[in-house]
Amino acid sequence: MKIVIVGSGYVGLVTGACFSEVGIDVVCVDIDHKKIKNLKKGIIPIYEPGLEHMIKRNMSKERLAFSTSLADTISDAEAIFISVGTPPDEDGSADLKHVLAVARECGKHMEDYKLIVTKSTVPVGTSEKVKQVVQQELDERGLKIKFDVASNPEFLKEGAAIEDFMKPDRIVVGTESKRAEELLDRLYQPFTLNGHPIIFMDVVSAEMTKYAANSMLATKISFINDIANLCEIVGADINNVRKGIGSDSRIGAKFIYPGIGYGGSCFPKDVKALIRTASENSYELQVLKAVESVNQYQKTLMFKKISRHFNGELKGKVIAIWGLSFKPKTDDMREAPSLEIITSLLDAGAIVKAYDPEAMDEAKHYFEDRIMYCPDKYDALIDADCLAVLTEWPEFRVPNFNIVKRLMNEFTLFDGRNIYSAKEIYSLGFNYECIGVKKVKKKSTNKILKLVV
């Protein structure tokens, strides 16, 4: 069985690698010649644990190949997966020009039945547009070729994408014909043998499922952040509140960790797109508008805490930043809270020294030489007036605080992900602020503590 995956970004590469891992012949197509040239050399454009090794292994077994031409690869493929980007337009709607360009290419070059599958995150109704474009191209060629369009949204978590694909919670497929359903059922059989369910539904429902799922998760995040902000005001501890509500099976413990807002390529874009879809259908998604509003506020919270600590006088202050990516185990900085926080610090005249295990090169695309890029987490602390933890990378969880105190000018720690115990940090002589816990004023001065150390 052979499939073609158009788009060699995050979703396309993970999908291609995992399908080839179970013995399916896969060709990943992308119009970016440099990217394809590098992939043929084993140079992977993104960081995802396990992906590079899997790609190289399947390339060596000749189950995974790369090309810049859909026309050269479509003839013997049973299915073509569209996995290109759908960036948001200014109005929040998803830009479908790349998706429809692939559909147009399929119509121009297919000679027999093909199943065209939208894997990209696309608004409700996109599959119908894809079908119309393909049919238009076939009509212009004067050909009557049967084809199907299906929806197969991805549910991959960056940092755990391989595990998510190989052992999925569920596989959602929207089809309009028995032929398409049987083909996709056969394609996914290796992933369902251990009981992982494949759920077949109509195409429109499959498209909606993707947006509804991400919007629900975003809602849980904004809800707990809103409650965390109230906890700080009234003196409650969000860590206790989270445990109290998370033990309720109807709520669950996942996605109710307070922080500095969600980011990445999915949640912000998908929430905006679903709000836009509702608006286009004369309906207002009031809950999701609030979700988006809370998230935007949450991204400003860390800067406000830092500014308040220094009485608004940030010019010349050295701020150490641990974590730049929007979450651990990825180098993705799209919509990352760090972008807004660091920009606000720079605008206020602060000096920013940053470290991230994977996102340093990515950060240079955003900040160029406006910040200092440090080779390790401790280097970022030298002469720092405070430390702000923005991403909960594992290596930040148990630092050597004796080294931390020896390097910093002032022992002040802002924990944007609540990864430390306030009691422990206070006992070490730090000023400490996290999310959703009322700040406790210390009696000791940093100057005295530093002399003791």
**Which CATH class of the largest domain?**
Alpha Beta
Low confidence ranges? 443-453
At the third CATH level, what is the topology name of the largest domain?
Answer: Rossmann fold
Based on Cα principal axes, name the global outline.
Answer: elongated
Helical content (DSSP H or I, runs of 4+): 40-55%
The total domain count is 2
According to CATH, the homologous superfamily of the largest domain is NAD(P)-binding Rossmann-like Domain
Q: Count every beta strand, where a strand is a DSSP E run of 2 or more residues.
A: 14
Proportion of β residues? 5-15%
Q: How many separate helices?
A: 16
Oligomeric state of the chains present here = single chain
Largest sheet: number of strands, sense, barrel closure: 6 strands, parallel
Give the class from helix and strand content and strand pairing.
Answer: alpha/beta
CATH architecture of the largest domain: 3-Layer(aba) Sandwich
Whole-number average pLDDT?
A: 94
Distance between the termini: 66 Å
Tell me the strand order in the biggest sheet: 3-2-1-4-5-6
**H-E order:** EHEHHEEHEHEHEHEHHHHEHEHEEHEHEH
* Cα gyration radius (Å): 24 Å
Description:
The protein is α/β, with parallel strands linked by helices and 453 residues long. The chain has helices spanning 10-21, 33-40, 51-60, 97-109, 126-141, 161-166, 178-192, 203-234, 238-246, 267-280, 286-309, 337-347, 360-367, 401-407, 422-427, 446-452; strands spanning 2-6, 25-29, 64-67, 79-82, 114-118, 147-151, 171-174, 198-201, 318-322, 351-355, 372-373, 386-389, 412-415, 431-433. The chain is elongated and about 75 Å long.
